[in-house]
Specification:
The chain has helices spanning about 5-10, 20-30, 35-45, 60-65, 75-85, 120-130, 160-195, 200-225, 230-240, 245-255, 260-270, 275-280, 280-290, 305-310, 315-325, 330-335, 340-345, 350-360; strands at about 50-55, 65, 70-75, 90, 100-105, 135-140, 145-150, 150-155, 195, 300. The protein folds into three domains: about 5-155, DNA integrity scanning protein, DisA, N-terminal domain (YojJ-like (1, 3-Layer(aba) Sandwich); about 160-300, DNA integrity scanning linker region (Ferritin, Up-down Bundle); about 300-365. The chain is built from 18 helices and ten strands. It is an alpha+beta fold and about 375 residues long. About 55% of the residues lie in helices and about 10% in strands. It is elongated and about 90 Å long. The strands form two sheets. Strands 1, 2, 3, 4, 5, 6, 7 and 8 form an eight-stranded mixed β-sheet that branches. Strands 9-10 form a two-stranded antiparallel ribbon. The longest helix is centred in the middle third of the chain and has 35 residues, at about 160-195.
């Protein structure tokens, strides 16, 4: 390796603890709309050119090739575009501050496995297996951009394609949120009537999972949209931003083990399950910790979700109330007999809490 280049190349290896998924997320962020790399890629595609760009782990990358032109010049989108007009690869440092080589001939081990067919894509895939670099391949013929990280390929989509997908997901979020809000209002009444069935809980958990799955997918699109995704991110936050906490409270209300840790574990199991399993009362019962329930079985909620909806219940107070009374039904029974007990627990304005619960119930004191 040229001595001048060697002086300018730092040890840019990715930290060992960084997972493949984290590396891919970083690669998507580096190439998202609004970044210098994305501007260069858009110019390359508009110019009907191809390109092979290695970003990061430059010592290993330079050790896997030869020839080319040592540059060591500041990185800009225009320079990256102009250099793509030459054959060979372009080598850029991990921080995207310098372009080290152009017209560089890569020689990755041909025995490294890849399912790619084109020469440029095969080289990119093998270089991503051989090194910790982000390898970007632009197809001259197909005019598409693929990112390669650890042998994994990710094809960049255009902003119009991403916005179309985002629009569909936002529609899903809107309709699901409306259904969920109606179901939760009905659930509050059923909880106060002490007549919530496993089927009711299953339906609402299904809505929650549909909502959060769509929100997660929208998050991935927002990441890909970069600076173009701000409006989409605002819509996502409006429709699903406050539902994570509500979802966990819902699970805690009905799980046999109501701890926050167990609720997180249950949510992870539901999220990992196939959608058909969300709709099965028997499967939901087992995830919640019950083996002997059927869809018409009546469940008694703790009341955490309902209590947290009342403004006078400060953070942590709902847990304290549940610890004192046991569940929502016991609380409602005792309110009539001993209304001062809530004040003794530290609830500010217990009369407002009592009135709010009765209003949810559709009754007045």
């Amino acid at each position: 390796m040229d001595q001048e280049v060697e002086k300018n190349v730092e040890n840019e290896g990715v930290p060992v603890e960084e997972s493949l998924e984290e590396r891919l997320q970083r690669a998507i962020a580096v190439t998202a709309p609004g970044t210098a790399v994305r501007r260069a890629l858009d110019m390359i595609i508009a110019g009907h050119l191809g390109a092979l760009i290695c970003v990061g782990d430059t010592e290993t990358v330079l050790g896997a090739g030869n020839d080319g032109f040592p540059l060591n010049i500041s990185f800009t989108a225009n320079r990256l575009f102009e250099l793509s007009k030459m054959d060979g690869a372009i080598v850029v440092d991990r921080d995207l501050t310098q372009i080290l080589r152009a017209n560089f001939h890569l020689n990755p081990d041909p025995s490294l496995p890849t399912s790619e067919t084109g020469m440029r894509h095969r080289t990119a895939a093998r270089m991503s297996l051989l090194t910790k670099a982000l390898v970007i391949s632009v197809s001259e013929r197909r005019q598409v951009v693929n990112l390669y990280v650890g042998g994994r390929s990710f094809q960049l989509k255009s902003v119009p394609q991403l916005m179309a997908s985002a629009s569909q997901l936002i529609t899903t979020l809107q309709t699901t949120r409306q259904s969920l809000d109606r179901a939760l209002l009905r659930l509050s009444t059923l909880e106060l009537d002490n007549y919530v069935t496993l089927a009711d809980v299953t339906t609402i958990l299904n809505y929650f999972e549909t909502l959060m799955t769509a929100a997660d997918e929208l998050d991935r699109i927002v990441d890909q949209l970069g600076s173009e995704g701000r409006t989409v991110e605002m819509q996502r936050e409006q429709l699903a931003g406050d539902m994570d906490h509500e979802y966990l409270l819902m699970i805690r209300d009905y799980a046999r083990d109501s701890s926050e840790e167990n609720a997180e574990a249950i949510r992870a199991k539901l999220h990992a399950a196939a959608p058909s399993q969300w709709r099965s009362p028997n499967r939901v019962a087992k995830v919640l910790g019950y083996d002997d329930l059927h869809e018409d079985s009546v469940l008694v909620p703790l009341g955490l979700r309902t209590l947290n909806r009342v403004s006078v219940v400060r953070e942590g107070m709902a847990d304290k109330i549940v610890d004192e009374y046991g569940n929502l039904r016991e609380l409602m029974d005792d309110i009539e007999q001993n209304p001062n007990r809530l004040g003794e627990l530290g609830v500010r304005n217990p009369n407002i809490l009592t009135d709010s619960l009765y209003r949810m119930w559709g009754k007045k004191e």
